[in-house]
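Escalation from tier 1.

The customer reports that the assembly of two entities below gives different C-alpha cells on two consecutive runs. Tier 1 could not reproduce it. I'm attaching the input and our single run for tier 2 to review.
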Amino acid sequence: MSTATTPSSTATAPGTRPRVGLKTPVVYATAALLTVLLFLRPTPADVSTTFQFGTAAEWFAIPNASVPALLTISLLTVVMAAAAVWAFLLVRQRRRPPVWLHVVVGVAVVLAFLTYAGAGKTSVIPMVSLLAGALALSVPLVFGALSGVICERSGIINIAIEGQLLFGAFAAAVAASAAGSGYVGLVAAPLAGALVGAALAWFAVSFRVNQIIVGVVLNTLIIGLTGFLFATVLSDNRALWNTRMPLPRIRIPVLAEIPVLGPVLFNQTVLIYLMYVIVVVLQIMLFRSRWGLRTRAVGEHPKAADTVGIKVNTRRVWNTILGGAVAGLGGAFFTVGSGLAFGREMSAGNGFIALAAMILGKWNPWGAVLAALLFGFSKNLGNVLSTIGSGVPSELLLMLPYIITIFAVAGFVGRVRPPAAEGIPYTKS
Amino acid sequence: MTDHSHQSEGSDAGNEQAVAAAPPAEVAAEETAPGGHGPTHREDERPSVIHQILAGGALMSVLAVVLALLIGGLLIAFADEDTRAASGYFFSRPSDMLSAGWTAMRDAYVAMFRGSVLDWNAPTFAGMIKPFTESMVFSVPLILAGLGIAVGFRAGLFNIGAQGQIIVGAIVAAWLGFAFDMPPVIHLLVAVLGGAIGGAVYAGVAGVLKARFGANEVIVTIMLNYIAVYLIGYILKTPQFNPGRTGQRSPAVSAEATFPHLVPDWLLPNDFRLHWGFVMAVLATVFVWWLLERSTIGFEIRAVGANPAAARTAGMSVGRITIITMLVAGALAGLAASGQVLGTERSLTVGVAASFGFDAITVALLGRSRPWGTFFAGLLFGALKAGGFLMQSLTQTPIDIVLVVQSLIVLLIAAPPLVRAVFRLPSPTGRPRRPRPARTTTEEVTA
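Tier 1 run:
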C-alpha cells in the first residue's frame, strides 16, 4: 500500500535517522499468529489442496498443482514469521521495511488462506479465473479512484463518482446500442461522466454549495434519471436502445502467453488497456508536469496558487470535468466492457468503494490503483470461496475491505492526509 | 472538509466557516457568493442576508418544489410514448405533441395526488383518506432518520451513515421483539429502546473515530453502511434469525412488541397501516427541537457546527460534542428502524432500510436542518413515495421519477440564485442577479 515512501527518509544519514515505529513487524507477527490459529490448527494432516494455474487457451497445458495443505500453510507461516523478524531487525536499525516485503507477506496470507479453504476438497482453486475476476471487479474501482484523485487533488470532493460511473454505463449502453458498435459507447461514456462532473463543478464553484451535498444529490439524481429512462424509453424499444454490444477482446500476441498473469492482463478489451495507459499517464502527469503541479497547488493552498497567477476556480472546474470523464469511461465497463445491457442501478455502490480506494491509496494514482485491486481481489475471493464452500461466511470476508478502510482513515494503517484545501470553495479576497 | 480552522484568517472568514459548517448556514453564505459585487460589499451584506434567509426561505423552498415538479413533468412527458410518436410530426402539427405531453404529465401527477393525499374515487371515507395515512407511514422512517442527519448537520457533521444505523437498529429491535417474552407495553418500549441504542452505538463508532483520531465521518459512515449491509445478510442466515431457511426474513416480532394501529376500528372502520410510530416521530421532532433550541447540549452542538475553533476557545470539548451528536443521530436512525420493524414490516427483512438512509439526507437538506422543517420535508417525501406507487401502477410512470424530483428539489434549494434567475426574482440585496458560470466569475474577479 505504501508506495509513497518519501525519498527524504532514506536519504538522511544513518545516525540522524528518525525512529521507525514497530507497527510493521507487529502486523506481520499478528498475521503469522492468526495464520497458525485460524488456518493451521483446523487443517487436518494428510489432506491436499489443488491449485489450477492453466486455462484451456494455452499452447501447452499447465498441470494442476496439488500441494499438501498442512505443510504448505506451515511453510507460509514460516515466511511470515521470518518477515516479521527481519522487519523487526530493520526497525531496530531505524530502517523502513521495503515495500516488496508487504507484498510478500500479503501474498503469503492469501495463499495460506486459499490452501486452508481448499484443503481436502475435490474442487480446485482456479487461480486464473480468481485473478481475472478480481481484475474485472477492480476496473470500475480503478477508474473511479483515479477520477477522485484528479478532482480532490485540485480541492473538489467528488462524492458523485457513483453517479458518474452509472451515467457512463448508461450512455455507453445507449450509444453503443444505437450505433451498433461498442466503441461508440467508449466515446459516449466519458462525455456523460464529464456532464455530471460539470454539474458538480457548476454548483460547487459558481454557487458555492457544499460539495458533499451536491455529490450525494447528483448520485440520487442519476440513479433516478437512469432508472426512469431505463423503465420507459429503453424498455419500450429494447432492440434499438439497449442491445448488448460487447467490446471484442484483443489478445496481445506475446505477452498473453505468460503463464497465469498473461491471460489475466493481456487478453482484455481495449477499455482495460486504456486503463493501464491512464494510470501511468496520470501518475507521471500529476507529479512531473505543469498541469500536475498547478493541480496540486490549487488543492493544497489556493491562495498561494492564485498569487502566482494560477486561475484557481478554472483549474478546479476543468479538473472536475476531466475526473468525471475518467469515471464515466470506467462506467462503460459495466455495460460494453463486460458485454451486458444496461440495468437499473448497475454501478451498485462501486463509486463509494472507489472513493475509499482513493483514500486508502493516499490520494496517489498508484496507491489508489493498488487499493482498488485489493478491493476487487477480496470481493472476488469472497465470491469464489462461496462457490467452493469454505467455513468462512462470505459476508464476513466481504466486509473486510471496508473495515480495513476504516482503520486506514482512523490512522492505524499509515497516515492519511487529504489535500489541505479540499472541500473549501475559493473566493479571491 | 475536516479542517476549516486555518481558513479563518481570510477576510471572507464568515463565508468559509458557514460553508464548512452546515447546510442552512451554508445557504446563507452562498448568498454572498462571488458574483457581480466587489468584495467591499460583502461585509455590509451579512445582516441583510440573514434577514433574507429568515424572510424568504419558505418562498424559495416552495418555488424549488414547483420547479422540480415541472422538470419532472417534462421528463414524464418526454418519456411518454404518445408524445414521442407525435413529436415525429411536430412541425406539421405541434399541438398534438404538446397535448399528448400535457396529458401524460397531468395523469401522472393526478395519480400521484390520489396515491398520497386524497383518493376521491374510493367508496368509503376511510378509503378516501387512506392515501394520506400511507404517506404518513412512509414518512415515519424519513422523518426520524432525517432528524438524525439534521442534528449532525447542525454540528457540522456529515452523517451519511443513517442507512447502516437503521440496519443495526433494526437488527437489535427485531431480535428483542421476537426472541423474548415480556408484558405488552414494556416489550414494545424495550424493543424501541434497543433499536435506538443499536443505532446510537453504530453511529458512535464514527463519532469516536472522528473525535479521537480525526477520521473523516463521511468515509467512515459510508464504510459502516456497507459493513451493515453484509452484517444483516449474515445475521439473517444464522439459525435464530432464519426459520424459513430463505435468509430473507426473520421470525415475526411478537404482538406485544408491535406498535398498535393509530386509528382504532371503533372510531373508523379501516385497514390503515398507520401505527403509533408516527406519534413517536412527532415526539422525536419535539425532542430534537427542545434539544437544539433549548438545551445546553444543543447550544454546544450549534456552536461547534458554526465555528469549532471558537467553540473550543469558549471551553467546549469539540470531541465530546462530536460523539454526543453522533449518538443522538444514531439513536434517531435506530428509532426509524424500530418504526419499520415493529410497526410497518413487523419482522426483519434484508431490505429493511430500503433507501431511507439516503432519502433522509435529502429530507434533512430540504428541511434546512430545522426539526419542524425536517418533519414537513419528511411528510412531503413520504407523500411522494406513497403517491409514486399509485402513479406507477396507474400510469406506468416509473417511481424513479420521485428520486429525480427529490434530488432536483434539494439541488435547487441549495442554489437560490438559480431559482431566482428562473423566476426572475430580485436578489436579496435588491440588485438583479444572475447565476454566472465559473469562468466568468474568475475572469471578473481577476479583472
